[in-house]
Write a structure and sequence with these properties.
It is built from three helices and eight strands, in the order E-H-E-E-E-H-E-H-E-E-E. The protein has 133 residues and is α+β, with helices and mostly antiparallel strands. Belongs to the methylmalonyl-CoA epimerase family.
Length: 133
């Protein structure tokens, strides 16, 4: 069974969005992080049993900057926590899903991550996450 780990939201203005979500949720982000390999700044808010991740592109060619240019701000992805990311990647490939990564990579919040192509998930970008042990 997959559990929702977080919902990723693409934002143009990191400072403004962090303030907005603080006012909305009533809590400060528990973590902010720059992920150089992805060209993003991230912040995480805990909300009940899940998290909200805000993502701001730091370069014009980052995936988040391109997403905002094409679609505007909004929900970018849904992340599911898995126990064994390699096993889950193999399972999804055998079920016909298209993965955007051949191998997991280091993501934000001390996670290994892999993405499922939106074309194989009804237009939704899916992220698999596993805690780095």
């Amino acid at each position: 069974m997959l559990n929702v780990e977080h919902i990723g939201i693409a934002v143009k203005d990191f400072s403004q969005a962090n303030g907005l979500y603080f006012r909305l949720l009533g809590v400060e982000p528990y973590k902010t992080e720059h992920v150089e390999s992805e060209g993003v700044n991230t912040s995480f808010f805990r909300v009940g049993g899940t998290k909200i991740e805000l993502l701001e592109g730091t370069t014009p060619d980052s995936a988040i900057s391109k997403f905002i240019e094409k679609r505007g701000e909004g929900i970018h992805h849904i992340a599911f926590e898995v126990e064994d990311i390699l096993k889950e990647m193999e399972r999804l490939k055998s079920e016909g899903f298209i993965l955007l990564n051949d191998a997991p990579k280091k993501g934000a919040d001390n996670k290994l991550v892999c993405f499922v192509h939106p074309k194989s998930a009804n237009g939704v970008l899916i992220e698999l996450t596993q805690e780095i042990r």
